[in-house]
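Q: Protein A?
A:
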Amino acid sequence: MPNITRFFFSAFFLTTLISGFADAKVLHDDRSPQAIMGNALWQEAMSAYAAHEDHVSNDDYMIVIDYRRHSGEPRFFLIDMEEKTAEAYLVSHGRASDPDHDGMADRFSNVSGSKMSSLGSFVTAETYYGKHGLSLRLDGLESQNAAARERAIVIHGADYVDANRSKMGRSWGCPSLEQHVAADLIPKIADGVLIYTRGPEAEDELYADIVDKAG
């Protein structure tokens, strides 16, 4: 009888241990947008999506850029809208958004020549080949980024965005990606993918406006 009890106890312990490892693996492998970028930002991004859904013609993906994070941290989030999974990549911000080059963007503008990043919602447009190779034009959907096309704010690859750097180099306002990432992503996200860009400036006012538009 003691041997039987010992056997069942051992079996129960082993089953519990395996179950615990399985649960830990699920948590570790969680690629949901909420897990990758945080639930609050995900909910905010979905409000932006609802507010601008009429402009979305490529609903395979959505992009969220969180400029509240340091440039050395992956903060360009590509969301697969069918699978509801997310991948995070490195992205630059504008030179004048970070004048002391500490890796944090704290100034934003919609003015041509400002060399600053812009906040708010954009939609991707056509691709082209320019001085940075394959590039993707963006159209701003709100007052704080309406001049994006005029300012030539585009997604492109750049050598100054590299995982070996502690902080990324700065663009003239473009959300630049690692070269190999840009080459892979740009064809997928062209022609009508929504981009929601978040920063520390006037957060409450911008979010309230998004929620209001989303109804």
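Q: Protein B?
A:
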Amino acid sequence: MIALTSKNMMYVNRYYHPVYLFCRYVVYVVLHVLFRICVVHPENVPREGGVILASNHIHNFDPPTVGITLSRYVSFMAKEELFALPVASSLLKTIGGFPVRRGGQDRSALRFSFDVLEQGGCLMMFPEGHRSKTGVLGKGMPGVAMIAKRSEKPIVPIGIIGSYKIFSKVTIRFGTPYYASPSESNQEIVNTLMNKIQQLVDLGHEEAKRTFGD
């Protein structure tokens, strides 16, 4: 299996790698068997060019669930502890994961993120920095703002709605892309982003109550 490094990874063409396509197919089937996945406005994600996907984080299934809704290879940060086992590490790297050290600035993960965007790739980030145990959107961290400003790439906010209970509905709602203003502080960018994510989550909950009652 090809090692995941910024030197040999082509983030635009990796989508067509046979190992990735096989893993994607397996994940697609499993997730669609387990959950009722609904996708809203996936067309808001640009078909090409570097882009940041910024989402709330409610479950470990979030990255692959978002990934199977798009016709793009999605790279995403995952806590380095998940890469401890060789099999898990190989699988995560194949489907787009790369390790990040929590609790401080991880320069290697930052460089990797910029490489993804500069090569025209799709980078998924969770501004909260960790999963929400309650499902309530937490405080955003400044990392996504810093990367967005320096890379000058658009941000697509995402709201994930659902409990991930077996056979329950999980909705992925994509917002419209926007650029972080160079004149804004990192905190202002994060505040704007978190508001956009919260609006998407609220829309999803309101729609679920009106339509399905779940």
